[in-house]
Design brief:
With about 290 residues, the chain is of the alpha/beta class. The protein is about 40% helix and about 20% strand. The radius of gyration is 18 Å and the shape is globular.
Length: about 290
């Protein structure tokens, strides 16, 4: 792959690309507090037949930061990547928060994407208002910590243990690879994750609106593949061993799409691309083989 940058407003946004420039374009958008390297396996698997672009959204990976963050800024990063590189009819794939970004962009500009794939990208599970208020208060504490300067990780082994605790399904080799790719050294000799702690401001600028997101999903005109992990409930802590959305909630969200297919991958949690990379690649390839040129 190559390491490259483009401008999104005043910021330099980093991305990687794989494959033959003459092949159809695919854009990969990672989740919140993640980075483009998390898609390395999927990018390599798709690069045989596609030109693959994986971006680091602002405040993530090797992209520049900004003092505060709002959802529309990330939609703008995706839009500006596609415009800057003059990509025609791209296929766009997003994971988790990145799936929400892709979904809103595809609904706002339905004439542009050739196809959309959302990996665990249909928004968070529903929560009561008291839970949302509690999360809002927690976010202010996170902002305070970020402004004060957080404590660094002592070494790669500590970072590896932290990553493994959050992603127990990861193989040892993959966890160590992602630890090295997802951290950077600080001036005091400690390490930090490659995301801006001020991303906590996302939680004080307004909560997720299902009504708004469904309205954008209804505008998506292209074929859409929705992929969830069959055991993704463990990520949210309230449905271990089950999909993160209960059947009735899942049905409501599916009904918003015009032309969508749902696939649930056995043995996968929220990080489907980590847990079942081969199965994910096969599902994406099978879907893309049915999409008109």
């Amino acid at each position: 792959f190559r390491e490259r940058f483009y401008r999104s407003g005043p910021l330099r946004i980093h991305f990687r690309d794989w494959g033959n420039p003459e092949n159809p374009p695919i854009v990969l958008i990672h989740g919140l507090r993640d980075h483009s390297h998390s898609f390395d396996d999927l990018a390599r698997g798709l690069s045989r037949d596609y030109r693959v672009y994986a971006a680091d959204l602002r405040g993530h990976g090797d992209s520049e930061t900004t003092p505060y963050y709002a959802f529309g800024h990330f939609v703008g990063d995706l839009r500006n990547l596609i415009r800057a590189l003059r990509l025609e009819r791209p296929i766009v794939i997003g994971h988790s928060f990145g799936g929400e970004v892709v979904g809103q962009w595809a609904g706002a500009f339905p004439e542009i994407p050739r196809a959309v794939v959302l990996l665990e990208g249909m928004g968070p599970p529903p929560h009561a208002m008291k839970w949302r208020i509690a999360r809002h208060r927690m976010a202010w504490k996170a902002v305070d910590r970020a402004q004060a300067g957080g404590k660094g990780l002592p070494d790669l082994e500590a970072a590896y243990e932290r990553l493994r605790s959050k992603n127990p399904r990861l193989s040892d080799a993959k966890a160590r690879e992602l630890t090295e790719l997802g951290t950077r050294a600080r001036e005091d000799g400690t390490l930090e994750w490659k995301f801006d702690p001020m991303l906590a401001t996302m939680s004080i600028t307004g909560s997720f609106s299902m009504e708004t997101m469904c309205a954008f999903w209804a505008e998506i005109a292209c074929p859409t593949l929705l992929i969830n992990g069959k055991e993704s409930g463990e990520f949210w802590g309230d449905r271990p061993g089950l999909p993160y959305l209960a059947p009735d909630e899942l049905s409501k969200r599916l009904a918003a799409f015009r032309n969508a297919k749902l696939v649930e991958i056995e043995g996968a949690g929220h990080m489907v691309h980590f847990d079942r990379p081969k199965e994910l690649l096969a599902e994406v390839r099978n879907f893309l083989n049915t999409v008109p040129a």
